[in-house]
Amino acid sequence: MKLNNLSYPDSKINFTVRHTLSQFNGTFSKFELDMEGDTDNIESLKANLSVDISSLDAGIPLLNKHLTTEEQFFNMAKYPNATFVSTEIKKKGESKLYVKGNMTIKGITKEIHLDVNYKEDESGVEINFNTELKRSDFGLRTKALLDRFGIISNTAKVFGVFKFLK
Predict the structure, then answer these.
(1) Which of 39, 84, 126, 139 is the most buried (most CB within 10 A)?
(2) Residues with Cβ < 8 Å from 106, sequence gap 6 or more?
(3) Which pTM value belongs to this model?
């Protein structure tokens, strides 16, 4: 199956970051995912994802503004998108994939991997993914005191789902 009919209402990119004894959760609601190839040859698929930083929603308007506009965070005026481009996709079982690629945030590119589960049925293909990113790898930092004492975790858990319709 060609993966060219992404169902945006059914597709989501979420993140979680630990803050002291709790955590805050957020989502990116605007993104574009281009997939080349088809599911008959999973390892030949290529993914190109672009995430609109302005669509970040952490549930608190002042926090959204802080995370998207401040230099130490996403600075969307200078870096409006984050991107992921796959470089390798390997089957790891009947419905599991290992996806390696280049993630770019704030102009900084790092190789990351995604753990992926996928399911193909009569309605289409559902791809669930998760990974962990270190904020500091991409220049996303807090005040030195907060980082030094681990008040805000340096690790962001990123997960979500992409649903392609037939």
Answers:
(1) 84
(2) 74, 75, 78, 79, 138, 139, 140
(3) 0.91
Give the Cβ contact number of residue 162 at 10 Å: 24
> Structure tokens of 138?
């991409």
Higher pLDDT, 149 or 33: 33
Euclidean distance between CA atoms 77 and 19, whole angstroms: 26
**Residue 107 located in a structural domain:** yes
- The answer, yes or no, to whether residue 109 has pLDDT greater than 90, is yes
CB of 131 within 8 A of CB of 125? Answer: no
Over range 70-89, report the average pLDDT: 94
* Consecutive H or E run containing 7: none
Distance CA 158, CA 137 (A): 15
Please tell me the distance from the alpha carbon of residue 11 to that of residue 35, in angstroms, as a whole number: 14
